[in-house]
Amino acid sequence: MSFSSDEVNFLVYRYLQESGFQHSAYTFGIESHISQSEDGTEQRMVESLSLIDAVMPDVVASRQNQINQQKQQVKTEVQDTNGEEVVTSNEGVGTNERGGDRTEMEVDEQQQGSARGTNASAVEIPDTKATILRGHESEVFICAWNPTTDLLASGSGDSTARIWDMSGTSEAPNQLILRHCIQRGGTEVPSNKDVTSLDWKCDGTLLATGSYDGYARIWKTDGRLASTLGQHKGPIFALKWNKRGNYILSAGVDKTTIIWDAESGQCTQQFCFHCAPALDVDWQTNTSFASCSTDQCIHVCKLNVDKPIKSFQGHTNEVNAIKWDPQGNLLASCSDDMSLKIWSMKQDTWVHDLQAHSKEIYTIKWSPTGPGTHNPNMNLTLASASFDSTVRLWDVDKGACIHTLTKHTEPVYSVAFSPDGKFLASGSFDKCVHIWSTQSGQLVHSYQGTGGIFEVCWNSRGDKVGASASDGSVFVLDLRKM
């Protein structure tokens, strides 16, 4: 997962405080408006933030609401709106905001007409088809399937990653606990820092994790730690294996990106071209990659080259995520400026500037379709997920929105295409995982979990969907015979 501007501001502020840079933290807090309050209440609130707060502005707002409610001793109100019970509480956005979003979506839906599916024929996934994985003691930000086997990895705010063996039929699958520890006084102690990112090596033999403690780690499938990668000066926000499996790429709050030699665990090259925290990275080839930052810039860099081979500017706010298409020809980026842009190495300005979302775009994914993929007869499409509670599918050749998927009622944090490209899974903080037909835009399956969904992912066969949630749960949906 990736991070937006407000989220990063909180992370930077917390990092400076925890590192003892009180003056720098104070200055940063003033400049970023974090620490402005009349009575210091907000300052104390920020100091107690965890990564879940940092990646959920709504949670920050709800915490402030909780403080206000404690002051005013206002009881929770329950209103009946349009026949629907709406609870104004700390868990969701207010009634007016939700109502406004829905009105906007309804107008949009009328304009799109048949281009959008409804949930009239959607099949609710029964509990018998869902395996709930318990063990994490805090929010689970990320999850990812092993590329070759049914091992599901998850990363949490409890400073652990876990590997769940989903290959059998047991209701209580075996789990390996990967404890993230640091050296202190000659002994290993738990880092007590959030696991922010993870990625499997393409052959499924190794798992890489990135942590708020500033270290990347490489793990074997049996849970043993293979390497600890220490060069970043602060939290790591993203990391990725290249396709060959010899390098790992990471991005951090220290404004740098690093290419690591996976075998030796050494830093091969550190790139210092951003002037603010780097939020996301993605490989173009085995030796070249793109990075994005809160500085609104995108750089394309290459191993053994001492400056960017290309830089893209055009976003007017922080760039949250970037993704190369399957062939590495087009680069998609999404931003807090509510736009999604498509770039090409052949030109300096964007190929498309796609503006349709009404709030920040949190993440994007390309379909595994089109020329050079396992599904060459299907068109290449791009999915975008936004805080406006919608998912959009785009025809990138035409620069047009094909479908707008509107059944979520809270910010959408994750989207993932099935391996054959026929379905798209989406996860939202409304606790729902929806599965859509990419051809018709119709909602075909739906499941409601017990916490806000941070990540969804498909296994390699396309018959299971994994999801991780804010209440510490991880669950797997079995779509066979659905």
TrEMBL record:
Compartment annotation: Nucleus
Region Disordered: start-end pairs: 66-122
UniProt cross-references to InterPro entries, sorted A to Z: Ebi-like, LisH, WD40/YVTN_repeat-like_dom_sf, WD40_PAC1, WD40_repeat_CS, WD40_repeat_dom_sf, WD40_rpt
SMART domains xrefs: LisH, WD40
CDD domains associated with the record: WD40
Superkingdom classification of source: Eukaryota
WD repeat residues: 133-174, 195-220, 229-270, 312-353, 354-404, 405-446
Entries under Gene3D superfamilies matching the protein: 1.20.960.30, YVTN repeat-like/Quinoprotein amine dehydrogenase
Keywords: Nucleus, Repeat, WD repeat
UniProt record similarity statement: Belongs to the WD repeat EBI family.
Name of the protein described by the UniProt record: F-box-like/WD repeat-containing protein TBL1XR1
Lineage of source species: Eukaryota, Metazoa, Ecdysozoa, Arthropoda, Hexapoda
